[in-house]
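User: I'm preparing a small set of examples for a lab meeting where we compare how different chains pack in three dimensions. I only have the primary sequence for this one, and I'd like the structure in token form so I can line it up with the others. Please keep the answer compact; I'll paste it straight into my notes.
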Amino acid sequence: MREREDGGLLLRQLRYHYALNPEDTNKFATEINELKIHAFDQNGVFYKEFVFDDPAQLTEEHFIHLPLPDGKWDIVTWGSEGKGSLSDSYDMGILSRSDSGPSYNTGIEEGLTNIEEARLWIKNLAKTTDDGRRHVTDQISKLYHASLYDVTTTTTTSPTRIINVPMMQNTNTLRVVITGLPQTMTRAANEDFGLTADMVNGHYRHNNLLCSDGFPLKYENGVWENEGEEGVQNDLTVLRPFIDDTTSELTITIPQLEPYGYKDGKIAVKIVPTITQSPDYRSQTDLDRANTYIFEFDFDINMNLTVTVNGWKVRNIIPEI
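Assistant: Understood. Below is the structure token output for the 321-residue chain.
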């Protein structure tokens, strides 16, 4: 990597890596199998999309060359776990505004779309009927991101110049494990139990931040699996939580709990404030590194509840009967 005198970077080839994970090791070659790289010119206008989905091109040793004309560029990269996964789970397009509010138009156009209006969002969102949230009922693919700004291409530099590009994962798994309930309850989990996560909007800008006027989301998964001899578990794949989010909420609904003092059979916890009770998760980097959060809800014989996240006890809940 060579720096220009004005602080920018000379771009010839890109070497991607992904090490912001619980093991702190480079997992780019094993976890990321598709890249969509968007190049925007010095005026912020979209120039071209480059797609790389050949496993031979996506290794720790392989360098990616972008055939760009001489000039200054902003480079935005989206990655996924498998070929076609980005298109299966996400749309890319632009934000437009009108008197009726924001709307999102699929597709970015070469020579027209500006980097500030470009967006990526979860596709196939059906509006819910209760609180106006957009409903995510399908498990979304893992999403990764990287960005470079004010880089320069020039034919006068050596083709061996390399920029190392760190990627980060934009999705997390919320794993809910329920133990201690009678088997008469857990056997009927797929019929009776509910799991939702009400979270902030899922509309990403080029800089990996959420735009302020996207739709809030409601994630839902009704498929429960056995966990050990007495428990059940359920996974929700969600867009990454932010450290300053105090409103997003995880809700479990078990109608059979209502006689034990749980109103409407519901248990609700604030996602980020609950996670950050653990000393292991005090910064945004800590949250982004974790990838999976295991919320364990353990009932005792009196239906009192202990909640732990990734092994850290965060809360006791004693119902009012």
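A couple of notes for your slides: The chain has six helices and 25 strands. Residues 1-9 have pLDDT under 50 and may be disordered.

User: Perfect, thanks.
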